[in-house]
Amino acid sequence: MGSTDTAPATGDELWEVVAAVPDPEMPPLTIADLGILRAVDVIDDAGGDQPTVTVQVTPTYSGCPAVEYIEDQIVEAVVGAGYDRSQVHIDRVFSPAWSTDWITEAGKAKLAASGISPPRPVVATEPGTTTVEIRRRAVTCPRCGSTNTEVVSQFGSTACKALYRCGDCAEPFDHVKEL
Amino acid sequence: MGSELTEQAALETYVLRLADDNMVLGQRLGELIAWMPELEEDIAVANLALDHVGQARNLYQYAAELEGGGRTEDDVAMLRDERGYLNAVLVEQPNGDFAHTMARQFFFDAYQVPLYQGLSHSGDERLAGIAQKAFKEARYHLDHSSSWLIRLGDGTAESHERTQAAVDAMWPFTGDLFFADEVEAELVETGVAVDPAGLKPTWDATVAEVLAEANVTRPDDPYQRLGGRTGLHTEELGHLLAEMQHLYRSHPGASW
Predict the structure, then answer these.
(1) Which of A25, A61, A178 would best serve as a mutation to test chain B binding (most B beta carbons within 10 A)?
(2) Which CATH code of 1.10.10.10, 3.30.470.10, 3.90.1010.20, 3.30.300.130 fits the domain covering A11-92?
(3) What is the complex's ipTM, to 2 decimals?
(4) In angstroms, rounded to a whole number, what is the distance separating the alpha carbons of residues B235 and B82?
């Protein structure tokens, strides 16, 4: 590859660039924190053409309105890393379906620090436990830590959240729904 | 049947049937935004609509690719007339009062959960992927609609009466969900589609359980209005499409 400073980023370096793209609705989290970034592949065609970058992402919800915006931001990030815009491709992958278990520990910590209650584990609980059962268990208030909380609305400010209220500190808060 | 149905043609029709259910129901729910009895439910219907329209988009994109004629998902949704729409007649029924909206949603959710569960194992990878994601959403929808049906049916005398009326009103349109013709037959055989008849026992069980808990009587009127899957709709769909498609058709190619 090139020996100049302008050589496009590859490998881990390019992954880090793409991974740093923030989620527009929960900006403290990156798309890597959310677990929606699946793969970043560079195909360096020896034929002399420009290298091609394919980024695989998975939507959180089928109708998540942020998907297209996030994809645009990914393209900008890859272009910023030295690639030709026409050679950047986004591959939207559905299977296997995204789960809130894919939110990283760092991501969950950032959610809690922002006053948003992170999702509880789905897969790690006993086999056969449904998300409905998980949802019926107590959610912890991200402000005061109380488990005396109640659901106000099963749907919240974005597709991935529900609205809760704390019975002790009386504050309302968002909770990322287990999926 | 006189003419030979190719697997490709069957798949195109099948994907449209799945997509149109979601598009029409998403549009109906969208009509309610800013009209719900409380703010939380306003947010809920908006979220439900978003999920259904999102699922419809994924399916329309696939339908457009299957056609192979260069049309977009928007073209598929916006440039077909009433007779070309293949949704079940249940989802085009008007919103009515909140009980009607929730009864329609519950009957549909109870069908869509086992449908997507089955489709998650479809031999068609694209459909399986769309269904795996949508299954999780449908399950959440069912949790929401069934808890409302129970709360309203088992609530005050007024809410009970209106919930029973809503269930009775929606009932004759539920049978269309289980309609099947040579399209499904062809694709069930190849492991692509889910046999609608096979979903009926699960649906019956869910309906029996929730209606019992809601203290609502399961209607026994055997009349069922079919036809949606072949484009024979009730009066309601034409009005819905006129509103939904107006902008796209009046300003071709417009974008923002």
Answers:
(1) A61
(2) 3.30.300.130
(3) 0.82
(4) 10
